[in-house]
Each structure stands twice: as structure tokens, then as C-alpha cells.
Amino acid sequence: MTVKPHLPSTQTWLADSWQRSIGAGLSEFQLPQELRLDASELKQKHEQYQMLIALVQSHALPLFNQLMAHSNSRLLLSDAEGYVLRHWGVSRYSTKLADVALDIGVNWLEQHKGTNAIGTALTAKQAVSVVGEQHFIRQNRFMSCTACPIFSPQGEMLGVIDITSEQQRHTQQTLMLVSSLAQQVETALLCHLPDSHYRIDLAAQPNLLSSGWQGIVIADSDGRIVGYNPMAKQLLNQAKVGDSVEQYLGDNWSRAGGFNQHLDLHLQTQSLNIPSAKSRVAMSNKSLNQLGVRFHDPQLERAWQHANKVITKQIPLLVLGETGVGKEQFVKKLHAHSVRRSEPLVAVNCAALPAELVESELFGYQAGAFTGANRTGFIGKIRQAHGGFLFLDEIGEMPLAAQSRLLRVLQEREVVPVGSNQSFKVDIQIIAATHMDLEQQVAQGLFRQDLFYRLNGLQVRLPALRERQDIERIIHKLHRKHRIAPQAICPELLGLLVQHDWPGNLRELDNLMQVACLMAEGDDTLTWQHLPDYLAQKLAAGPLTVDPLNTQLLNEKQPLGEEAKTGQHSASHPLAGKVTRDNTATLPTTTAVQSDSLHEAIYSNVLQAYQACNGNVSQCAKRLGISRNALYRRLKQMGLKG
Ligand SMILES: Nc1ncnc2c1ncn2[C@@H]1O[C@H](COP(=O)(O)OP(=O)(O)OP(=O)(O)O)[C@@H](O)[C@H]1O
Fold this sequence. Notes:
Layout: H1 12-23, H2 39-48, H3 50-59, H4 61-68, E1 73-79, E2 84-89, H5 91-99, H6 110-113, H7 117-124, E3 128-131, E4 143-151, E5 157-166, H8 172-191, E6 198-203, E7 215-219, E8 225-228, H9 230-236, H10 246-249, E9 257-260, E10 265-271, H11 277-291, H12 298-310, E11 317-320, H13 327-336, E12 345-349, H14 358-363, H15 381-384, E13 389-393, H16 400-412, E14 414-415, E15 424-425, E16 429-434, H17 438-443, H18 449-455, E17 458-461, H19 471-482, E18 488-489, H20 491-499, H21 505-519, E19 525-526, H22 533-541, H23 562-566, H24 568-571, H25 581-585, H26 595-612, H27 617-624, H28 628-637
Parallel strand pairs: 11-16, 11-17, 12-13, 13-16, 18-19
Antiparallel strand pairs: 1-2, 1-5, 3-4, 4-5, 6-7, 6-10, 7-8, 9-10, 14-15
The structure holds adenosine-5'-triphosphate.
């Protein structure tokens, strides 16, 4: 007999969380299977979060010990994926927590553990207390937990800090305490920003200056703002990273203490040069990278380091790489870690813009500039990006007419909206990306040479997945992301996945893992049997086995059907001829597809999906399992898009 859980009715967030727990297929009367990191995965996590753990230990643990040392409580830290990284406090209580697996390396996301403070705070992105009976799983109801997310200065959620106590009602005070612990850690992270030299505390009352609730601005040695907390943002109103502190606080801001009459604020400035500015900056660069961005491939790391050097200097950056290597994600990270992070990142998909709209989208237009124009006019993407980043994705697809006008913007840093003769100055960092060979496009007269040189301030190429030294690590990472319960990957399968050529790169691997993990639900090991047929066939047989549906597997630079004629991917398949009969016997039969039928099958599949989705490109791309960009290219080749 199924017993219907009694949904808590008083608090919406709690009722929502219980609903999610039920939706995840959990039962309140059954301890769920735990998702636990193995020793090497845990070691990697500890390395990655070394700095966060150290800052919790130095900035949150002392206050916790002071206030909670004699209670049956523990302080826990989890990462943003819900894995417990460390815990501190009474050890007797730790044994009891281990019984319900509130233990290092165990995942406490709601989907695995039902309503609980760590998982619910991560989902709600806010501080929550889950007291006794409010836990979804009955066995967890002996404890009361309060958790608060920790955000990086770039606004990324890094993890959750949590106090868990036995048989103790957590009150509003506990919630305040945990929020304050998270705030202490966030302030420490702020002080570790690269180039930080001064810390300026701001408050309306002098006694608030050291309250933990003051505004904090971090500045470099030239007095430029490198970061601030939300309270400082509120107090200084328009302040931006990169602005000079003097602009807001006058020329006396670097004195140890003072009062700004204009803003009615008390100030306290201190120098952050401990132990030595140079080594600290080097340390903080490294450590902050470890928190948010860390690459385990030398080529990618080099691209990251080089890109970061030009990103502050208004030198245009050109990001190259095959489809699905993560160019867009890379640009998002660059923005999030740049001095322009509090300004917009405006992305323009040049492949998706109809030729006749490119100019008005980019440059904007005046009211009534053309038939169908919005009555109020449009500011345009370039001016929207003022102060921040303009990301021109798929730049190789931009029509020639728009290329000329873009060139003018890049040269003069001015925009003239369509139908207007007024020009507007813009301050933008331009980043363009493409999977195409732009030099070849230039040689063929499809891309303006002068624009190419303008965009090509610095070129970075992101490696294809098959070239990456960390491919095995990525396979494990994506398996961890999608697996539903603890599960290993069969070593033979892992070996084959590592050697596969991955023409769709990270996107293809991510999609594959998602599907394979669903197929493998309930199994201890991910094996061949869980792979979609097209991949199992490719891995087993190599040559000329392409699933027509998986159009992204085709070489994007060739017209449809070309690679089937040349056998380009498969001829170089590392596994060709290496698979034994025993292996192939367990696999679906291989279908060698002739180029003509392949050609037709692709056309027909794309067309069918496009029609079924009523021409909705996003839905259709999702249905086909390919990117929107890849679909746009296909539709263009098929004459279905301009
Ligand atoms: N660092 C990463 N780790 C895991 N998966 C990633 C990573 N970066 C990207 N991906 C996966 O790859 C997909 C494609 O990423 P992204 O859109 O950045 O690639 P792209 O190179 O811009 O592709 P395209 O050229 O087709 O526009 C993402 O949606 C995600 O599933």
C-alpha cells in the first residue's frame, strides 16, 4: 500500500521542496541509496576547493566554535553540486550523522536526499532552516539543519555552509548565524581577488563599520575598484568594477578613517598587502581560478591565460574551435572573471539572424526607420553591450553588407542606428567566435579581410575533445553529473570513449552521458548496453557507420553527404579493426549507410523534425539532439533559412 505523504502546508518553499522530493521518486519511509564520491573523486574535489575549505576554517569555524562548541552541532561545507566537502564539530555526533550518510563525499541534493537544508538551500539559492519533521526522509528527522549558499565575487554559487544539530530547534538566530558565516567567507573571497590592494569599509554609522554588515569595496594599488559586496553596491549606487574609488569617495578615501559628507558615510581603509602583495596575488589568482575555472588541459589553460591578458585591454578576441568544444561557455567564464563582469554580456548569434535584420539588430534603429519597425525604435545589441562584452557568435555567417558596418564600429567605436544620422560612442570588449576557417572564408571572398584583421586581435583555439589530455576526467565529470545513483563505468567502455573521435565534442558527450545514464538507471556499472545504437555501432565497427539522425556527427565544413563519400571520420577511427567478435556479438548490428541514402535520410529527418516543430528552431534542435547553430547551418544548406 502506498502512503501519501502529508505535504507541509504552511510554508510555500517547504511544500515546493516536498513536491520536488516526491517528483524525484523518493519515499519518506525509505532511506535512499546514497551517491558517494570515490577516493580519487574526493581528492580532486578537495584540491579544487582547497581555498574555500581554508577560508571556511579561518573565517567561519572560529565563530561557530565560540557559539556552538558545547552543543551537539556540526559545521558542514558542501560544493555547489551538493557533495559534502568537510565537517567540523563534536565527533560523537559525527558518528550519528554518518548513519544517515551526512558524511564527507556524499551528495545531499534534494533529488537524492529529499528536503534537507543543504539541498534545499542550493535549489532555492537562499538560506533555509529545515527543522526535524520538515525533512522529507523520516530517518533524517532527528536533526535540525540550517544552510546558506556562498557566492563568489563573480556571483557564482560555490557551495553551501550548514549547521546541523541534534534534537535542537533551529531558530531565526541560527539562520542569522549561518548567513553571517557565509558572509564572512564571501568577504574573505573578495579580499583575495587578483590585484586587490585596499579594502574600504563603508557604513552610515561608525559602529556598523566592523559589524559584518558594512559595505566593502576592494581596490587595486591605483585606486581602481576590483570588487565590492552587495551592501557597497547599494551604498555607492552606480559604482562599477574598473571605476576609480575617488570618483565616489573623494580624494581622501585612502586615509585610514574618515567621513564622506557628500555620501553621509563613514569610511575605514586598510591595506591588504599581507604577506607580500606579489605572492598573495599569485596565490589568489591560482586559488580563485581553482574555485571557478580550472583547466586540466595545457592547450585550454594556455587559451584561458592568453585570453585573460587581452580581455581588459579592448583588444578583440577571436575564439576558434570545432562545434561543441565549449566556445560559448568559455566566453561566459571570461566575462564572469573579467573587470567588466558587472556589465552586460550581450551575445549575438550571427547564424540565426536573418540577413535583412542583421543591421537593425546590431546597430539599432530609429522609430519608424522602416516598415515593421517598432514604434519606439530599438537601441541595438552593440549599444546594449556598452561597458561590457559584445559576443559575436558564428561570426563567419555574417552577411557581407553587415560586415562593412561592423568594421566601422570597430574602427571608430561609434554606432549610427539605422535611419538616423546621430552617432553614439560605445565602450565594448568584442569577442567573436566561429567553427569556420575564417582565413579560407577571406580567400573565397566570403569574409572581409579588413574585418578579419580587426577581429583577430588575439586568436585562441579551443581544442577538440579528442585532443584534450583531460578527456577521461571529463567523461567521469559528465557521468557524475548525469548518473542517477552511485555507478561505475566499465573500464573497456571508458577506454573506447577516451579513444572515440567525438566530432560533436563536449555537446555530444554531454548528450550521450545524459541518455546513457537514464538507460543505466538501477545498474551498478555503465556499459555498452546503455549506449544509444548509433554510438555503440560506431565504437564497435568504426568505418562508415553513421546514424542519419545524428546530423551533428557530420563534418560541418562539408556539404551534406560529402564525408560519407570520403569516409573522413571513420577512416581514421582509432578502433577500426580492433573490436573482437565477442564484443560485437553483444552489440546492435552495424548498418553501413551509402552516401546517397545518407544524404536523403538526413534531409528527410531534419525536414520532418522541422515540420513537426512548426518551424521552431530551438525545439527542433532539441529533438534532433544538435545545437541551434548546427541546425541553422543545416537549414541554410537545405534552403529553408536565409
Ligand atoms: N566545460 C564543459 N564541461 C562540460 N560540458 C561542457 C563544457 N563546455 C560546454 N559543454 C557542453 O557542450 C555544449 C556546447 O557548448 P558551447 O555552446 O559553449 O559550444 P560551442 O563551441 O559554442 O558550440 P557551437 O560552435 O556549436 O556554437 C554545452 O551545452 C554543454 O552541454
